[in-house]
Amino acid sequence: MTVQPIRLLGDPVLRTAADPVVDFDKELRNLVRDLVETMRNEGGAGLAAPQLGVGLRVFAFDVDEVVGHIVNPTLSFPDEEEQDGPEGCLSIPGIYVDTKRRQHVVANGFTEFGDPVQLVGTGLMARCVQHETDHLDGVLFLDRLDSAGRKEAWKQIRAAEWYEEDKPPVVKESPHSRGIFGLGR
């Protein structure tokens, strides 16, 4: 287990859809441990493999003393209830902007050993699961902001120490419809 460097906004791996995991082997188990250790070291609630530069569909989470991971997640939403609150990202350090997400989520996937697993999340856990699954699709929380939220986020990003003016990051439109997920365009 090793703490790994986290890729920052502007790294192309963060905008690339990750590949499904097909080998549930020692390499995957090492990746899961690196995700958990790096996430905890950075004080995050979640961390996806692309944030470590690995294009595989796996993420780790640590929310309300529940620590785990999920491989090849698929999400479903039991209702239409939404939440709106501050969201940040370890790949966009120090930036927090109110972001709409679904209040409840059910994630189905696998453990690092290939065993089926289901995670039912509400509130912060639901936000984390949606955020990390977005990473696996090459989507950042900035993509989910309305225009006012996006302007506020970019104001904070441009003022951040890590931002490099000569290499501005690209924000893409969300591939999800506004009606289902309450997304801003």
UniProtKB/TrEMBL annotation:
Record keywords, A-Z: Hydrolase, Iron, Metal-binding, Protein biosynthesis
GO molecular function, one term: peptide deformylase activity
InterPro entries named in the record: Peptide_deformylase, Peptide_deformylase_sf
Cofactor requirements of the protein: Fe(2+)
EC number: 3.5.1.88
Free-text remark on how the cofactor is bound: Binds 1 Fe(2+) ion.
Short name of one Pfam family: Pep_deformylase
Biological processes per GO annotation: translation
Segment forming the signal sequence: none
Catalytic residue positions: 132
Binding residues for Fe cation: 89, 131, 135
Superkingdom assignment: Bacteria
Protein role: Removes the formyl group from the N-terminal Met of newly synthesized proteins. Requires at least a dipeptide for an efficient rate of reaction. N-terminal L-methionine is a prerequisite for activity but the enzyme has broad specificity at other positions.
Homology family: Belongs to the polypeptide deformylase family.
PANTHER family in alphabetical order: PEPTIDE DEFORMYLASE, PEPTIDE DEFORMYLASE, MITOCHONDRIAL
Protein name: Peptide deformylase
Lineage, opening ranks: Bacteria, Bacillati, Actinomycetota, Actinomycetes, Micromonosporales
